[in-house]
């Protein structure tokens, strides 16, 4: 099996991490593209000794860490896509190492030991960074959250997490029409949306309808994340995979609000 074939299953999830880290699809996907270009240019330098997935994320982390605000990546000219997006205003507020550590552990499921390897830190430092990120979440300004989810138990779990974070829930919608009606009645500051809804309507369509009249951050929830992480079309920046862990939801909400406030 070629290196490209070994990397392929991990690319959708690297896109998820990159988008959450950069705050948008285009910038995140540009970093992933630059990562792949780096691997293609020097495959012999790919760190196979740590495994394909870790090696892929380690290559990405090196590019992320070495890219400055003006697009300079060490002494190497970055790709045109990366050069274009790294200079955007929102990337001036690049998330701290604490947020990187939280996303790698809570969203991507890496152990503290693996995260330490990826970030070139020791495990004790990673634990401290994660604690720092969680403390930042507790300090975030509260907002009003609309939940679009047709499975009652999951909706209740999300509602509990959201309220425990200090946010208010404006309502829970199970269909596209309900979601639009609730948003019109009480404008949310954040939307958490499932993809497939009760009447076979789409959470994506519901969000598109709502965003036609307001601008709020959105976190999508799906059991099939690969379908929205292709890099081939307009796709979400923030995505949670079902089944999810509490810290995964917290990390995604925090990151979405972080960039909306930039």
Automatic annotation (TrEMBL):
Alphabetical list of SMART domains matching this protein: REC
GO terms (BP aspect): phosphorelay signal transduction system
Signal peptide: none
Domain of life: Bacteria
Keyword Phosphoprotein: yes
Keyword Metal-binding tagged: no
Residues the record lists as 4-aspartylphosphate modifications: 194
Response regulatory domain location: 144-257
Pfam families for this protein: PhyR_sigma-like, PhyR_sigma2, Response_reg
Keywords for this protein: Phosphoprotein
Entries under PROSITE patterns matching the protein: RESPONSE_REGULATORY
Name of the molecule in the record: Response regulator
Organism: Alterisphingorhabdus coralli
């Amino acid at each position: 099996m070629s290196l490209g074939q070994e990397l392929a299953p991990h690319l959708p999830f690297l896109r998820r991490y990159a988008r959450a880290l950069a705050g948008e699809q285009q910038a995140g996907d540009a970093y992933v593209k630059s990562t792949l270009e780096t691997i293609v240019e020097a495959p012999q330098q790919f760190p196979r000794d740590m495994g394909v997935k870790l090696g892929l994320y380690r290559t990405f982390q090196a590019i992320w860490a070495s890219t400055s605000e003006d697009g300079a990546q060490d002494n190497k000219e970055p790709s045109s896509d990366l050069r274009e997006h790294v200079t955007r205003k929102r990337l001036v507020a690049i998330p701290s190492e604490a947020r990187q550590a939280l996303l790698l552990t809570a969203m991507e499921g890496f152990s503290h030991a693996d995260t330490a390897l990826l970030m070139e830190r020791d495990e004790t430092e990673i634990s401290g960074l994660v604690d720092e990120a969680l403390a930042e979440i507790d300090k975030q300004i509260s907002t009003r959250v609309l939940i679009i989810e047709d499975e009652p138990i999951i909706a209740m779990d999300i509602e509990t997490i959201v309220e425990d974070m200090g946010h208010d829930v404006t309502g829970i919608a199970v269909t596209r029409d309900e979601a639009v009606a609730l948003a019109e009645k009480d404008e949310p500051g954040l939307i958490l949306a499932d993809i497939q809804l009760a009447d076979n309507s789409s959470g994506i369509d519901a969000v598109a309808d709502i965003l036609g009249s307001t601008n709020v951050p959105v976190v999508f929830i799906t059991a099939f994340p690969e379908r929205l992480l292709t890099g081939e079309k307009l796709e979400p920046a923030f995505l949670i995979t079902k089944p999810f862990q509490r810290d995964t939801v917290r990390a995604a909400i925090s990151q979405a609000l972080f960039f909306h406030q930039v």
